[in-house]
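User: Just a sanity check before I run the rest of the batch. Below are the structure tokens for the first item. I only need the designed sequence back.
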């Protein structure tokens, strides 16, 4: 059986290094490790699943593909299914950024031999970027794509190479998140860069602009709901939403102007 991955999963697969020992956490049907094992791209994989339904589906998938010698399906919460130094690449995809961070944080002791993380948060990408910085994982690349009406970001992070000094990480990280002024005058500070993505905000694509236009629309809907409420704290909160929305609109106008 030939496996055709979605565009989103294919992007993640493309960032798994050849001959990896992979852990795919929250693997669901284990499509990603099965595809990579069939392609002979990985030498070993652990497909981790906490929930019984997806776990059973993963077991069936691996068995059906006769890949039990390469892929082991393990049931457990996050990185609890992995031993330290057992894998060198970890993928965690299709869940919120907050959950991805809590999985990584709860399993930091399992990350000792891991050189690469490929993470695809459905929301809360800024939380993931913030965690990577705090834990000294260098964000190496970001990709944004649209599929079936949804927009996804994929983040690739690596541990600083051997011999890399702590202050080199600090320098690289500092320059990645250093404030930047756009041609229109808008300043992207650290908080904006964490939100937008330090790479994505440099190579502004149609999908990227669309993502942030959706965010403007979402803010508009929140403001409309607030307008119908007479809760006391609403005035101040409303001002914050108005300010955020107008900054986003300014940014989008800026990007569009820069692309003319
Ligand atoms: N990674 C696949 C993908 O991107 O297509 C599946 C994504 S699916 C939406 C999320 C999966 O993560 C579910 O199968 C869920 O059971 C699993 N999951 C959620 N929390 C988890 C955790 N703490 N540990 C392991 N798996 C988890």
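Assistant: Here's the designed sequence for the first item:
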């Amino acid at each position: 059986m030939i496996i055709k991955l979605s565009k989103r999963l294919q992007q993640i697969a493309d960032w798994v290094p050849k001959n990896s020992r992979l852990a795919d956490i929250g693997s669901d049907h284990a499509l990603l490790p099965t595809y990579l094992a069939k392609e002979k791209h990985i030498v070993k994989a652990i497909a981790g699943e906490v929930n019984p339904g997806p776990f059973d589906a993963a077991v069936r998938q691996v068995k059906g593909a006769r890949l039990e010698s390469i892929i082991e399906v393990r049931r457990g919460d996050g990185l609890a299914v992995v031993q330290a130094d057992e894998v060198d690449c970890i993928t965690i995809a299709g869940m919120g950024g907050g959950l991805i961070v809590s999985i990584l944080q709860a399993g930091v002791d399992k990350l000792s031999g891991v050189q690469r993380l490929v993470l695809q948060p459905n929301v809360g990408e800024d939380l993931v970027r913030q965690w990577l910085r705090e834990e000294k994982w260098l964000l190496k690349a970001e990709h944004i794509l649209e599929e079936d009406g949804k927009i996804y970001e994929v983040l690739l992070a690596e541990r600083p190479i051997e011999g890399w000094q702590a202050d080199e990480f600090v320098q690289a990280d500092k320059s990645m998140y250093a404030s930047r002024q756009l041609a229109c005058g808008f300043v992207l500070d650290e908080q904006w860069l964490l939100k937008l993505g330090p790479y994505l905000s440099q190579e502004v694509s149609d999908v990227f602009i669309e993502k942030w236009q959706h965010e403007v629309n979402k803010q508009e809907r929140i403001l409309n709901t607030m307008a119908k409420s007479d809760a006391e704290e609403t005035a101040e909160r409303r001002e914050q939403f108005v300010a955020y929305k107008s900054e986003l609109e300014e940014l989008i106008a800026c990007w569009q102007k820069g692309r003319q």
